[in-house]
C-alpha cells in the first residue's frame, strides 16, 4: 500500500500544482480542473501505465510470492490512478477549491526554484558535452553493474545483531550449518545389495568430507561403524537391522529403494557454495558413470537456491530490461516521437545503473530484494521523466528557442518534481534505519534511485533534449 500510494502522490502533486496555477491565472476551479485534465491527464495516465509495466514485470518471476506482490502492485496502481483522477477534480469543486491560489508563490520550493534554474541554464549552454558525458557515464555504470553476482543469505531476513540472529549464527557455526541437505541414492534394479549401497554411500561420504565448507556428513557406513565389531562397515551390513528403525530409514530404506547421505550447510551465501556444489555434482556424475544402475542427486534448500536462484535473478533482470524497453516504446508512441523515447533511455536507466554500482562498490551481491527494488523504483522514477517530456511537448506550440521552451517546461513541472522526490526520499529514508538487512537494502536502493532520477531529469534531460531533439528549431532559423 505504501509503494502504491507513492505513485498516487506523484500524480496528485502534479495535478494540484497545475490546478493552482490555473486558478492563480484567474480560472474558476471547475475550468482549472478541466484544463488540468486536458494538459496533465495523459502524463498521469502514462506514469501509472509505466509504473504498472515496471511492477508487472515481477509477474514473470518463478516465485509465487514475488508474482503475487507484482500482481497486487499492478492492481493497486490501477485503482490509485482512478482514485486520483476522480477525487482531486471533485474536491476542487468544493468550497476549498476557492482557496487553491492562496500561498501559491510562498512555498519553499517555489521561492527557491531559481536556484535550480541556474543549473539548468548552465547545462543548456553546454548540451553536447553534457549529453556525451551522460551517455559515457551510463555506459560505465552499466558495465560496473553487470559484474554483480547473484547471492542469498537467510540471515539477511532477520534484524542484524538481534538475539535471534546471534543465536542462529552461533548454532550455525557450532553445528557446521543449520541447513541439512542430502545426497539421495536410488535404484530400480532388484539385484542391488546392501553391501553395494553401503559402498556407494561410503564413496559419497568421502566426496563430501573433502569439502571444508560441508559439515558433518552422516551416512549408512558411519552408523554401522558405530556398532560393535572389528570388521569394516561394509562387512557388518548384516547388522543394519540393529539400528533403530527411524534412524535406519533416514539413511537406508529398502522398501522405497532409497539411501541418503546427510550433510550440513552454513549460511555463507549461495555464491560461496556455488563452486562447492559444482565440484560435488561433478564427482557424483562420475560415480554414476561407474555405477549406472544407481542414481545420485543432491536435495535441500541450499541446493535449490544454487540451482534456481541464479535463474530466478536472471529472469527478474531480463523482465526488468524488457519493462524498460516497453516503457521507452510506450513513451515514443505517446509523444509521437521515437526520438523522445530514445532520449528518455538515459534518465530512466541511469538511476538503476547508479544503484547497481553502489552494490558493487560496497561489495554487496545481487539478491532478489535488490531486483525487486530496481523494478519498483524504475516505475516510480520514470514518472518525473514523463511529466517533464509532457510539458516540453506542450511548450512546442509556444514561441521562443528550443532552450527557452525547455526552461519553460522546467518551470512548469520543476516544483512538482522536486516536491515529490523529497517526500519519496523521506519515506524511503525512514525505512533505511531498519535493523533487517533486506529492508535496509531495499530502502537505500530506493533513495539512490530516486535521487539520481531527480538529478538526471532536472539537469541531464534538458541538455539531452537541447542536443538531440531537432524538432523545434530556433526562432532565428
Structural class, judged by helices and strands? alpha+beta
Main sheet, how many strands, which sense, barrel?
Answer: 5 strands, antiparallel
The CATH superfamily of the largest domain is Multidrug efflux transporter AcrB transmembrane domain
Mean pLDDT: 83
CATH architecture of the largest domain: Up-down Bundle
Measured distance between first and last alpha carbons: 51 Å
Low-confidence spans: pLDDT under 50, at least 5 residues? 473-477
Which CATH class of the largest domain applies here? Mainly Alpha
Strand fraction equals 5-15%
Query: Level of helix content?
Result: 55-70%
Number of helix segments? 17
Taken together, the total number of domains comes to 2
Q: Count the strands?
A: 5
Write down the overall geometry. Answer: elongated
Written as H for each helix and E for each strand, in order along the chain, the element string is HHHHHHHEHEHHEEHEHHHHHH
What is the CATH T-level topology of the largest domain? Multidrug efflux transporter AcrB transmembrane fold
* Rg computed from alpha carbons, rounded to a whole number of angstroms: 30 Å
